[in-house]
What does this fold into?
Amino acid sequence: MLPLTNRRATRRPPTLFLLGSLALLLFLASTAAQAIPAYARQTGAACADCHAGSYGPALTPYGMRFKLGGYTDTDGQGTKIPLSMQLTETHNAPARGDSTTQLTEGDLYLAGRLTDQVGGFVKIEADHSGHNTYNTKLSNLDLRFVAKELKLVGKELLLGVSVNNSPGFNDPIGALPSASFLGPAGVTGSLLNPSSPNSLANRVIGASVYALYDSNWYGELGSYRSLPTSQQDHLGYNINGDPGRLSDTGYARFAYMKDMKRQFFSAGVVALTTRRQLPRSGPTDDLTDLGYDLTYQYLGNREHIVQLAYVNILEKRDYGSAPIVGGIAARDRGNVHDQTMSVTYTFKQSYGVTLTHFKSTGSRDPVRYGPSGDPDTTTNLISVYWTPFGKDNSYTSIANLKLAATWFRFTRFNGRENDIFFAPVGARRTDAGDLNAFSVSASIAF
Amino acid sequence: MSKLNMSHGLRLAAMATLVAAWAPAHAGDAKAGADVFKSECAECHAVKEGRNKKGPSLFGIVGRPSASVTDYAYSDALKSRQWTWTPEQLHTYLSQPAKTANPGTKMKYDGLTDAKQLDDLISYLQTLH
It folds into this structure.
């Protein structure tokens, strides 16, 4: 039996299915808001202290320290209930297809500290799945133990352990795709990109040990294994998205970060390697992701905040089989290259605009990537938003609201701008622009 | 004059004396100090009375005895001090790492070495009444 990628090559998914999958990916990216008022109640801090736009997921340096500390900071005013909820209503207007207005997502967060050393983040998510039904699933998970204020050669050292279900989600800088929820959508993608087909996100479990030395040097080593398909099913995931059986999986992350109060920058490298059987009875592919990321934040007096991030991940693939389809042999090696560049400007910690450019490229392979043989996809995301609460002087610090308008724009898909699915003569063509979508969303958290 | 008002009046008089004694050598710009506060202090300290974050509220900090916000859990290190947060004491405390100024403190702060910014900040803190 061919690996799923190969089967995809020989049996191309119907256009409607693909459009639906892309719409879901776009929706996930556009509404990837993470607001945890439980953390604000626990710490006495404002949402804006941890998030430049007063609503997650993008972190300020202070938010990074809170995450590194295992979500355990407190205002010392006793135990707070570590629960939050978020509801998101979305009007989605795709370039092709009917517009919809729905309560698209409801989230329950179990988030907060247990002790000075133990804290965590668990998200249970209910997504609208059509016909007034919702699919509930265990989303992101990050449970931590930390040992703080240690000393090594006269410098401060923090050591921690994170048990999580998505490589990169627990990263403090938050630029990696699993943490930023900004990863290129396309016909393929790297292991570290949660938007990739059969991605690892939330379908694996792993642990890593991490250290922060002298407040600037971050290092992390970990390993993951995929959940059995039966468990994925129990946790709310369709087993068609199974990441496969993983073995010899290693994750490494090193970064330098410098908080200068009014500015911040970081430079990091990341690696993820695994041997994957997809499907689980199939041959074994050797996959290795190597990436780097650069970020910069101008924070000033918090009136005007600019955040820049660039992430570049190259995945090298050594396939366990090279099937022949229609007399054409698939390549036995290949690579996938994911790049994301984003710029966010925030005014008064309330009004923001985010511009993101995604580029997913890879080795040409007519067997694995259909008639064009070219997996290249280029996408842009433009989002404007308003977050009226979440500041020190806000009317309330126990609830928050985010209103956002987001436009997704495809300029290339399957390596093409026009007729991206090679429509038969007489059939309606689909251009890359037909995948565009505009959405308006309102998220409330309490 | 009621007892409450007299106490308030005495506090204001004492504060005015402290400020007058400090002002000639350390005249800062309170407006610029507000910006310094936002980048250096605001993540851990609120200026609203009664609102504690990771650190205690800084409302009325200048002239206040150390470790005196009743509903904040101070470190033993600070509770054992008998400081009054005069401008001079704040200047000394904030110009160096907090753990050097008061070993054992919970406060994590590397210190503000820019003298003008420190003067501006303390001038701003004096307005928090």
Observations:
- Residues 3-125 of chain B form a domain with the Cytochrome Bc1 Complex; Chain D, domain 2 fold (CATH 1.10.760.10).
- DSSP finds six helices and no strands in chain B.
